[in-house]
Amino acid sequence: MALRLPTQLATPGRFHHHHRSKTLVSRALSWKRTIAPDAAHFSPLSSSTSTGRCNVGPRVMCTAETVGVVNLAPGTPVRPTSILVVGATGTLGRQVVRRALDEGYEVRCLVRPRPAPADFLRDWGAIVVNADLSKPETIPATLVGIHTIIDCATGRPEEPIRKVDWEGKVALIQCAKAMGIQKYVFFSIHNCDKHPEVPLMEIKYCTEKFLQDSGLNHIIIRLCGFMQGLIGQYAVPILEEKSVWGTDAATRIAYMDTQDIARLTFIALRNEEINGKLLTFAGPRAWTTQEVITLCERLAGQDANVTIVPVSVLRLTRQVTRFFEWTNDVADRLTFAEVLTSDIVFSVPMNETYKLLGVDVKDVVTLEKYLQDYFTNILKKLKDLKAQSKQTDIYF
C-alpha cells in the first residue's frame, strides 16, 4: 500500500533527537515499600508538581521523583509524520495503527517479544520493534527517529498492574523527555480521578499527573467503554445460546467504536490548540447492561440466557465486571464492585469536544448501528454456511 502524506499535516519543522547523551536518563524512578495498617485499604492519590506519587495497592507506594533534565545539542531532524504506537496489538491500538497508516503516517509499533509475532501489523505496512515496558533498558532504541508517541498500552491480566501501567509508563515518559519526543498522546479512563479504590483507574490518574508534570507536549484522552468489547461479552454468547452475565447495577456507559476513537485522536493530534489538554471521548448515549442485552436480543432475533449477579455478591467475592476492553480480559483486572454500588454514568456531553475538533456528531457511530451491522453480517454468514451445508449433504 502506497503511503500518502495527508494535507492536514504540518510541514516538517526542525525537531531533533539526541543520539548520544552523557545524561540520557534525566529522571530516576524510586520505589518505596510501606506496610499499611489495613491491608485492604487503598490509599488516595497524593501528588505535587515536582513528583508523581501514587499509592496503588494495599502495601506498595510508587514514587517517581524528578532529578533534572539536561538538553544537549540537536541531532538528526525528525519528521512530524513519524509515530510510535505502544500497545499496537490491543483493541484500540490496532485501530490507531490502521488509521495512522491510512492517513499517511510512518508507523512504528512497540510490541513485546512473544511466540506469536504481530505479523498483521507488518502486513498492514507498519514497522514492528520488540521492546518491553517492564524492561526500561529496551525502550530508548525504539524512540530513535520518532516525533510522536501514542500510548494505548495496558499490562496483561496475568501480571501485576504496577509493573507496566505505572513503572513501565514512568520509564517510557522519562525516556521520551530525555530523547526529545515532541508529543505524547496518553489514553486514560473517564472518572479515573474519582475512583482511587480501583487500582487501574488510580494508576491511570497518577500517570496523567506524572505526564503533565514532565514538561512533555502532550494530549490526554479519557475513554468510557469500547463497543468492540460487547461482542464477546453479549453478542456471541446470545448467538451461541450460552449464558450472558450481567449485574443489577444502574451503572450506564457510553460505549464508543474504537475506529471513531482513532479517527478523533488524529484530528486532535493535528490541532495545535489541543496541546496540553485533557479530553474525554464518549459515545452518543450511555447504556445499562440490561439495555445492551435487550438490544442484542432484538437484533439477534432470539432471547438471551441471562444470569444476573447482584452487586452485593461482587463486593463480597471481589469479582470484577467487564465494562472496559483495555486488555484481552480487563474484567479480570478492574475491581468495580464499589463503583457499581451507585448510579454512576460513564459519559460526558460531547458537543464542545465535537466543536473543538470540527467533527459532526452524525459521523460518530451509535451502538445501535454498530451492533446492527455486526448481527446483519454474522447472521448472513451463518445463513450462507447453512445453505452450503445443505448442498453438501447429498449422497448418491
From TrEMBL:
Pfam families, alphabetized: NmrA (PF05368)
Domain of life: Eukaryota
Keywords: Photosynthesis, Photosystem II, Plastid
One GO cellular component term noted in the UniProt record for this chain: plastid
Cellular localization per UniProt: Plastid
InterPro entries per UniProt: HCF244-like, NAD(P)-bd_dom_sf, NmrA-like
Domain NmrA-like: 82-316
SUPFAM superfamilies membership: NAD(P)-binding Rossmann-fold domains
PANTHER family, per database record: PROTEIN HIGH CHLOROPHYLL FLUORESCENCE PHENOTYPE 244, CHLOROPLASTIC, PTHR47128
Name used for this protein in its record: NmrA-like domain-containing protein
Source species: Quercus lobata
Gene: LOC115968714
